[in-house]
Design goal:
The complex is a heterodimer of chains A (266) and B (273). Chain A is α/β, with parallel strands linked by helices and 266 residues long. Chain A has 10 helices and 10 strands. Chain B has 273 residues and is mainly α. The chains are: A alpha/beta (266), B mainly alpha (273). The structure holds adenosine-5'-diphosphate and magnesium ion. Chain B: The chain crosses the membrane at residues 21-41, 78-102, 109-129, 135-153, 200-222, 234-252.
Chain lengths: 266, 273
């Protein structure tokens, strides 16, 4: 079980006393989004970060992705300071961020293309991940021809095909309908079980977090600080929507996380 | 096409054949009206030539090779000049759009020159470098440069930042960000700039050839008018129209169809060209 591996595991990402500030030079404003955050993301764990809108979740992801630098404190991967974006840290965005001018196949093969993998090799590898995302039929289609759920599966395939060390997902299922969301969550766990990888999953949905995670980190409303980390020790083979909602352990954990999130709102 | 909204809903193939049928009918109607007006007005051919006179002039210009030569000259001048203006417009549009330094350095100067129409430059260019291709090249690429530059700039400024972030997390270098995101994302705007610029340039070419050339469609029209060969003038005018139609059908539309429409960046347009 992943949680067992966690206790003795090594951190993949280490965040120490990190403060993140958005600076708007034109309006000479600065906005503290994350304050004094300390958090470890363990190798191959599935960590969910929950917190109300505007509490700094996306900003936290930006710092790990390397889009912005901490004002104070540090963020490291495998002990090394993160200074810029790189292929070792993949991101799945809420807006999918597929390139509209490339087919699903070319989108999924993109990271390999950047690395100079020859066309035949990268397309073969991309097709494996496309099959894994159950998109084989849609490989030659353009993003605008796909449904929201298919686009998000393509985005996940694109990130995984690039074999990053950590996959970060920023509210990836927020823009799809409720029914699709449930199946995407199950699909994600299936794919993750077959491809163990460190995952940082950001969401404002407590249910989603408890369903997916090994651990759930709850942030306080902005500026975001770590409120508490809740271990989710529900076995992986019990993570199915048709049964889990009546599992007392799931209900108890969900209510506990919910209380942590709501407590600070009221 | 005033009724293109309704036609939008029909399958593409049907729409094309319908539009073509209507286009042909339109041309025939114009020819008919022209012939009727000749009968009614009844002036000497050098003043108001009939379709028949123009056809005769056309045949003569084909036989003695003048028309082919002039068309080739005009097309060549046009292609090279538009290509030059397009390339420079894209390069400077990217520079200004992507770098604050270049934007501050060039922004005002370019806006200043934008206001000076190319027609104002032609006499000066003739004095400096004389009649002929260099003058035409500079004048026409000048006309294409500005709309391409400003549209490229808009394209670059409206790129979704998330697309750039996405390819950076996939490991793209700065150059790869340019080729995989920035250029394709700016392409619809670049095409708009090219369309506008190519249209201006076409008018500019005819004008420049009237002043600064001894061949080409502009010269044909100018020469025809000064020697009272009105039928030749009309041949030149019809050739202008045909050349533009051809360019739209064979160059601009196919590029748009193969790129921005297939990518879903814009919806297929109606019948304007
Ligand atoms: N580019 C930005 N410039 C200025 N402020 C920003 C920017 N992005 C986010 N913020 C601010 O930072 C805070 C955290 O935002 P964000 O990280 O997007 O929160 P979340 O993802 O949890 O909803 C918010 O107050 C937001 O207004
Ligand atoms: Mg967010």
């Amino acid at each position: 079980m992943n949680t067992a591996a966690l206790t003795g595991g090594t951190p993949k990402i280490s965040i120490r006393d990190m403060t993140l500030v958005h600076v708007n030079e034109e309006r000479r404003q600065s906005n503290v989004a994350v304050e004094n955050l300390t958090l470890d993301i363990m190798e191959n764990e599935f960590l969910c970060v929950v917190g109300p809108s505007g509490c700094g979740k996306s900003t936290l992801l930006s710092a790990i992705a390397g889009f912005m630098q901490p004002q104070t404190g540090t963020v490291t991967m495998n002990g090394e300071r993160i200074t810029k974006p790189g292929a070792d840290r993949g991101v799945v965005f809420q807006e999918y961020a597929l390139l509209p001018w490339k087919t699903v196949l070319d989108n999924v093969a993109l990271g390999l293309k950047f690395r100079g993998v020859p066309r035949a090799d990268r397309e073969a590898k991309a097709m494996e991940y496309i099959a894994m995302a159950r998109l084989t039929e849609a490989a030659k289609k353009y993003p605008h021809e796909l449904s929201g759920g298919m686009r998000q599966r393509a985005a996940v395939a694109r990130t995984l095909a690039n074999t990053p060390e950590i996959m970060m997902m920023d509210e990836p299922f927020a823009a799809v309908d409720a029914q699709t969301r449930l199946s995407l969550q199950e699909e994600l766990l299936r794919v993750w079980n077959d491809n163990p990888i460190t995952v940082l999953f950001i969401t404002h949905s407590v249910e989603e977090a408890v369903f997916l995670a090994d651990r759930v980190a709850v942030l306080t409303p902005g500026p975001g600080k770590l409120r508490e980390i809740v271990e989710i020790d529900i076995p992986r083979n019990a993570r199915h929507w048709d049964t889990i909602t009546s599992d007392p352990e799931f209900i108890a954990l969900r209510d506990r996380v919910m209380a942590l999130v709501r407590d600070q709102n009221g | 096409m005033t009724d293109s909204v309704a036609i939008h809903l029909r399958p593409r193939t049907l729409w094309i054949s319908r539009a073509q049928r209507r286009g042909t009918a339109g041309i025939l109607a114009v020819l008919l009206l022209w012939q009727i007006s000749v009968w009614i007005i009844d002036l000497p051919p050098y003043f108001y030539p009939a379709p028949r006179d123009v056809l005769a002039a056309f045949g003569e210009l084909i036989r003695n090779g003048i028309l082919i030569e002039y068309l080739a000259d005009s097309s060549w001048r046009y292609a090279v000049s538009v290509g030059t203006g397009l390339s420079l417009g894209i390069i400077f549009g990217l520079l200004i759009g992507l770098s604050g330094f270049w934007s501050r350095l060039l922004g005002s100067i370019i806006r200043f020159f934008y206001a000076i129409v190319e027609v104002a430059w032609i006499p000066l260019l003739v004095i400096w470098i004389g009649y002929g291709f260099p003058t035409i090249l500079i004048a026409i690429s000048y006309v294409v440069f500005f709309p391409v530059l400003y549209n490229t700039l808009t394209g670059v400024q409206t790129i979704q930042p998330v697309l750039i972030n996405a390819v950076r997390t996939l490991g793209a270098s700065r150059f790869q960000v340019l080729t995989s995101v920035i250029l394709p994302a700016a392409l619809p705007n670049i095409m708009t700039g090219l369309r506008v610029g190519a249209g201006f340039a076409f008018r500019g070419l005819i004008f420049a050839e009237m002043i600064a050339a001894g061949s080409g469609l502009g010269f044909l029209i100018f020469d025809g008018a000064s020697t009272r060969q009105t039928d030749r003038v009309v041949v030149g005018m019809i050739m202008m129209g045909l050349l533009w139609l051809l360019m739209d059908r064979l160059l601009l539309r196919p590029i748009e169809r193969a790129t921005i429409e297939r990518w879903g960046l814009v919806r297929a347009q109606g019948g304007e060209s």
